[in-house]
């Protein structure tokens, strides 16, 4: 009976580590996609030190989970106590780090409010000055998502033009035939003169929130699932470690 129990524990351990292996592969792929994606995310990530750091943390965590899942599978199948102990210690560190990151994200979530982004936009945005990273990033976001400002074009009324030739509405808010920097304007002159017909009137906060709402919940569910799998994997690792003679 004890041998059957140990064998069952071994294969359950292998199964949990296989899921950790897959989770690590997903995080690794997602991190690589965010960093190299050509549709505007790369510019956004590069311009924001917090996002830049977060993308590479995701990449590192994915690589570590990928490696640990592989080691856990090997340790379970070969019944190697050193590999199992190594796996347990590192998966514990990762579990605590992920838990801390989740708690910090919950605490500082107020920094992602509409008011915060509106304040930052009015403080740092320099319209069509592409030499400024903040302005260039915002222009890329507005072009990519066909939106204007945080709440709408009215956000730019309090922002002085970068030069005397510029209008109140930035070029990035004008409608294009194709939503990219290379896309032709529908009617640039009318847009810059204030014609709402040729402007993107919807704010970027609402557009981006609606675009990523499903993915945020999916990412949250995935994170909870990964934490649960890691917890069970640690329990099975210790049980298997103690059961090996």
TrEMBL record:
Q: Which GO terms describe its cellular component?
A: plasma membrane
* Superkingdom of origin organism: Eukaryota
* Subcellular localization: Membrane
Q: For this UniProt record, give its keywords in alphabetical order, as a comma-separated list.
A: Glycoprotein, Membrane, Transmembrane, Transmembrane helix
Q: Which InterPro entries match?
A: Tetraspanin/Peripherin, Tetraspanin_animals, Tetraspanin_CS, Tetraspanin_EC2_sf
Signal peptide range in chain numbering: none
| Topology term for the membrane | Multi-pass membrane protein
- Span-the-membrane segments of this chain are 12-36, 56-77, 84-108, 215-241
UniProt similarity note = Belongs to the tetraspanin (TM4SF) family.
Q: What is this protein called?
A: Tetraspanin
Q: Which organism is it from?
A: Tichodroma muraria
């Amino acid at each position: 009976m004890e041998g059957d129990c140990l064998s069952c524990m071994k294969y359950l351990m292998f199964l949990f580590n296989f899921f950790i292996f897959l989770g690590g592969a997903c995080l690794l792929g997602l991190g690589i996609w965010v960093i190299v994606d050509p549709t505007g995310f790369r510019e956004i990530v590069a311009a924001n030190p917090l996002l830049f750091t977060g993308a590479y943390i995701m990449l590192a965590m994915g690589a570590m989970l990928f490696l640990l899942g592989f080691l856990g599978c090997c340790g379970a199948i070969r019944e190697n106590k050193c590999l199992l102990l190594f796996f347990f210690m590192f998966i514990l560190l990762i579990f605590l780090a992920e838990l801390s990151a989740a708690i910090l994200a919950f605490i500082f979530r107020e920094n992602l409010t509409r008011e915060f982004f509106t304040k930052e936009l009015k403080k740092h945005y320099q319209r069509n000055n592409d030499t400024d990273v903040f302005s260039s990033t915002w222009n890329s976001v507005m072009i990519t998502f066909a939106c204007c400002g945080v709440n709408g074009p009215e956000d730019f009324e309090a922002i002085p033009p970068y030069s005397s030739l510029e209008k109140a509405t930035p070029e990035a808010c004008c409608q294009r035939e194709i939503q990219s920097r290379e896309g032709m304007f529908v009617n640039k002159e009318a847009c810059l003169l204030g014609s709402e017909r040729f402007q993107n009137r919807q704010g970027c906060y609402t557009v981006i929130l609606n675009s990523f709402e499903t993915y945020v919940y999916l990412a949250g569910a995935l994170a909870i699932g990964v934490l649960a799998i890691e917890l069970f994997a640690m329990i099975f690792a210790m049980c298997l470690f103690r059961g090996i003679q």
